[in-house]
Amino acid sequence: MSLYVILRLCDVERFESLSGISSAILSCPLLRELDVSSCHKLSDPGVRGAAISCPLLQSLDISNCSYVSDDTLREIAAACTDLRFLDASYCPNISLEAVRMPRLVDLRMHNCEGINATSMASLSQCFYLEALQLDFCWLLTSVTLDLPRLRHISLVNCRKIVELNLSSPALVSINITSCPILSRVDITSTALEKLVLQKQKSLTTITLQCLHLYEVDLTECESLTNSICEVFSEGGGCPMLNTLILDSCESLSNVYLNSVSLHMLSLTGCRGVTNLQLACPSLQKICLDGCDHLDRASFSPVGLCSLNLGICPHLTELEIIAPQMTSLELKGCGVLSQANIDCPQLHSLDASFCSLLNDDCLAAATAACPSIELLVLMSCTSIGPEGLLALQRLSNLTLLDLSYTFLTNLQPVIDSCPQLKVLKLQACKYLENSALIPLHRGRTLPKLCELDLSYGTLSQSAIEELLAWCPHLTHLSLNGCVNMHDLDWRFQASNSYSDSEPHRKQNKSDLRDDQIHVEGSPNRSLQHLNCVGCANIKKVVIPASAYCMSLSSLNLSLSANIQEVNLACLNLATLNLSNCVALEILKLDCPRLTSLLLQACGIEEQELECTIQSCNLLETLDVRFCPKVSSTSIAKLRLISPDLKRIFSSF
């Protein structure tokens, strides 16, 4: 049944119709807003008659009125000269041909099948237009507009659009998504601050004249070529660009950017980039994750404070000029052979596994970066004594890691690094047994407090003398030392701490091969001792006479042949004996012990019960996978030590 509406109210300013009407006759000279959206039965003449009878009309919604034609719009535009808002979405017969609406401010035309490239001529006459929505206009192939007041434009799912040309000083937002064949974008605006063109897979050319553009996101624009860099460099039209995101732009191979304003650059996932040159003195952050084919990189100059290039395994040439950089990580750049690093404020340099870096590179780096305090040269096998002597330029160097190198003696380190506090020499299998003698009693490197000799081949006597004559060490790691035998620190009054060292007084044949005798010293500073995975240790004895008053942590885990542990350490807080499967005897006089880890140990439950009776402050006990500790014993342990907060067991 048809529904007719006749209004003759002279003072009505707004009219919202019922969706089922098929005809409307209005006589409302003051009507300013007319909404006949979704009136599917309303004919083209019906819409025309209703609208043109309201000369003061400013807002018209005819969305989903499928019969409306260009003829009707032309007559409405002629009759309603003050029309500011028009929603003609889902009107398939509208193409805007010869339609002139110069006062229009907001135009919405979603899913209008008739809108195409020729429609731009009419839109170009909308000089007051501020907002334009052309989403899902399937036949639209290009948009070319020069509108001085246009602020917002939306082109979502315009699947045939190839080219976009916009010139508007007032433009502040552009919404372009799912336009799969869009290849060219040209935008001129003095107000636009952010431009997002993500996943435009066919986009190859961008031209921008945007004086205040701050951020650009071109993520997954796979067809962008190297020429895009010119757009964002000096003279490219974006003088205030701060953030540039080019993630997963896989066609990029040579990235060259020269910008004084750029602060953040992301090239995450740009696997095709092999050459990177940045002259961006304000650059504060860069993301290079996934740039694993990068071969040459130049950061000259940049404002970066830190840089991680360890994710670029194929990097061969590197240049960095960064006055503010404090941290540089090159870990894993295994083929890096040329490095020019000029960072006067550099505090930390990690060049682990840079096996091709030579003495000349290290010498040049130390000359240009005199503030280095932490230097990691693990597995830098091309660096020799001459390169190490160059470290004398680093007057503030406190940590040096020379693990996995061919180092034979410490003399270059001693001569160059008097302020050294931490020295790591893991797996230095060519280190001579006499190499540690200069360290005895702090004659050299007096500030050294942490020493790591793990996985080395030093003899037992060398380790023995180190333990005896380096009481100033606070941290000592001897993990995996195959020549380390029983650790017996029983003090013998006949061997006092005198001016003569044991290796000077005694023949090596007078010392037992299965024990380490440590002279007592009231000044022993050792706090942490790690002997993880020392397969030849069977007995560990540290009595009170060893003066290990500062020892707080002892780790003997994975030393599978330990049978006896006897400790009297006043301040020991943590003892780790996990996976010491041969452990039978455990005697502890450690009143401050709070954590005892015995996972997968072979200790008897009776021995364990006796042991913890003297540990009044024990809070954590781990006896998981201990085959000789039963569930009954767990209950007894709780009774013996009621202050235990955590017992980890397999029951």
Can you walk me through this structure?
With 651 residues, the chain is of the alpha/beta class. 12% of the residues lie in helices and 25% in strands. The protein is built from 11 helices and 43 strands. The strands form 7 sheets. The chain has a 14-stranded parallel β-sheet with strand order 23-25-27-28-29-30-31-32-35-37-39-41-42-43, with no helix packed on it. It has an 8-stranded parallel β-sheet with strand order 2-4-5-6-7-8-10-12, with no helix packed on it. A 5-stranded parallel β-sheet has the order 14-16-17-19-21, with no helix packed on it. The model is unreliable at 1-15 and 491-521 (pLDDT under 50).
Structural classification? alpha/beta
Amount of beta strand: 15-25%
Main sheet characteristics:
14 strands, parallel
Low-pLDDT ranges: 1-15, 491-521
Number of helices: 11
**How many strands in all?**
43
Mean pLDDT, to the nearest integer, reads 89
**Strand arrangement, major sheet:** 23-25-27-28-29-30-31-32-35-37-39-41-42-43
- The whole-angstrom Rg is 39 Å
Distance between the termini: 80 Å
Instruction: State the helicity in percent bands.
Output: 10-25%
Shape: elongated
User: How would you describe the oligomerization state of the chains in this entry?
Assistant: single chain
Salient structural properties:
651 residues, single chain, elongated, alpha/beta, 43 strands, disordered N terminus, 8-stranded parallel sheet
List the helices and strands and how they pair.
Blueprint: E1 4-7, E2 14-16, E3 23-26, E4 33-35, H1 44-52, E5 59-61, H2 70-79, E6 85-87, E7 106-108, H3 120-123, E8 131-133, E9 142-146, E10 152-156, E11 163-167, E12 173-177, E13 184-189, E14 194-196, E15 205-210, E16 215-217, H4 228-231, E17 243-245, E18 254-258, E19 264-266, E20 275-280, E21 285-287, E22 296-302, E23 306-308, E24 317-321, E25 327-329, E26 338-342, E27 348-350, H5 359-368, E28 374-376, H6 385-389, E29 399-401, H7 411-416, E30 422-424, E31 450-452, H8 460-469, E32 475-477, E33 486-488, H9 502-505, E34 515-517, E35 528-530, E36 539-542, E37 553-555, E38 564-567, E39 574-576, E40 585-588, E41 595-597, H10 605-612, E42 620-622, H11 631-640, E43 646-648
Parallel strand pairs: 1-3, 2-4, 4-5, 5-6, 6-7, 7-8, 8-10, 9-11, 10-12, 11-13, 13-15, 14-16, 16-17, 17-19, 18-20, 19-21, 20-22, 22-24, 23-25, 24-26, 25-27, 27-28, 28-29, 29-30, 30-31, 31-32, 32-35, 33-34, 33-36, 35-37, 36-38, 37-39, 38-40, 39-41, 41-42, 42-43
